[in-house]
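re: ur msg from earlier - yeah i can do the magnesium ion complex, just paste it... oh wait u already did. ok heres what im feeding in:
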Amino acid sequence: MSVQQLERFRSLSPAEFFYRNKEIAGFSNPARALYQSIRELVENALDATDSYGILPVIKVSIDSGVIPDKPEVYLISVEDNGIGIPPDNIPQAFAQLLYSSKYVLRQTRGMFGIGVKMAVLYSQITTGKPVEVLSSTINSSRIYMFRLSIDIKSNKPVIHHKASFKKSNDWHGTIVKLFIEGDWNRAKSKVYEYFKRTAIIAPYATIILKDPTDNVVYFKRSTTLMPRPPKEVKPHPHGVDIELLKMLISNTTTTTLKEFLMEEFQGIGEVTSKTIIELLKLDPNKDPKGLSNDEIELLAKVLKEFNNFKPPRPDSLSYLGEEIIKIGLESILKPEFVAANTRKPGVYEGHAFIVEVGLAYGGNIPPSEEPLLLRFANKIPLLYDERSDVSWKVVNQNIDWSLYEVEKPAPLAVLVHICSTKIPYKGVGKESIADVPEIENEIEKGVREVARELKSYIVRKRKEREEVEKAVGIIKYIPDIAKSLSSIVNDVQYNSLSNELFKLVLKKFKNVKFKSVDDVVVSVE
Ligand code: ADP
Ligand code: MG
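and the outut:
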């Protein structure tokens, strides 16, 4: 008997896909979903401020007990003083998956166009409530308010309520409020760690966090220095494949191959464009839209293999710089020593990247066998999957800290920040970074650089300590010697003898800061 079975086929909307695969975006359980939602809102808030040169003021509140008999439901509210969102874009920005203003070559925290929508989706699945957004752009005279949810089948926004108010002052920014089922007790330590690390990497931000127990943490900005905002750049030829090439061709307004190469890519000037076209054996005046499939394939190959392009421009990147890193580490970790090293821009697979390394030692940092590792990608703290991250490998396997005079357990923290328009995340969780050799190499050089500075500090400190010990060893006998001498040499008084001897010893030990013999006697006792 032959059974003929017919499968039923259909396609999923992006919203339905993410509805079925929430864990891909970090929404695997109530604790993680609460943490992830807060993160997505805060990262959008920071992007809307520091990417435009605005000193961020971010207010976050997490409330429980907001719905009767539902203690597991929390209300998250995040307010920023950013550029705001034009009212026409608000519904899609918050309630249509894969809608973003960040699909350009410029470093931002987001760039996948799913972040806040996952929080909205999770909120609507677990509480049935819409998200509320209030926003005003910088020059607008009005504030717009929307209550939205996602139509999962069609991936389109549903507008439940819409209103606008006249602005009475010059406030601009965005406030987002959403209800979500969560687990504060289990999320708490990660949430706090996340804010602490955000304050380290963005010491120019003021962040106020109110938790469900009404505990308020105030991270006051410790500097007004800010990273240079990222600039949008054109693709580098080494990062181009056939599909991207086709898209560039279909969007271009240029009419000759020569102009197309010079206009649509970075790193191609008149001479390089001519050389490429000679390699292709094509007419420089050919219309790019008239290229055959074979010619496009050949062009992609030549662009990948040609080795004489200028390297990718780092203008698209917004790195912190050594000063800001040191301020961040100092203000939050309160160490006795800090160092930082921002590496020169590097390239992997046609993508520009910059690695920055910071180091903090001593003070309030608790000693541990493994250095406290603070990982960041495009200014986002990475808290999960530490051991599979390339930075963990460098800090714990490639580097022998004893070469830098570090004795474990050591009060040591190492910060690694990677900036790129394409971060090579390992896996979909976006929590750890792959061992790309070019990046690993720069991390290692950066860590060695700050470790060398630490070594000089430790050696200097040790010398100073040894000197003090030596000086103390001598000075503590001065009272006895002075007493004996003054008793045999009649015309010399004890006090002046003691002072003279003390001065003699201090001359020898320039770094010893005691004020009198009594000082030393007290310190020895
Ligand atoms: P992504 O951040 O990856 O672009 P999101 O879904 O998190 O994706 O956000 C979608 C878009 O909504 C952003 O690209 C941005 O244009 C806009 N947006 C979200 N939150 C804010 C905010 N607080 N201020 C300004 N724009 C925002
Ligand atoms: Mg986002």
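cool cool. The longest strand covers residues 156-166. ping me if u need the other ligands too
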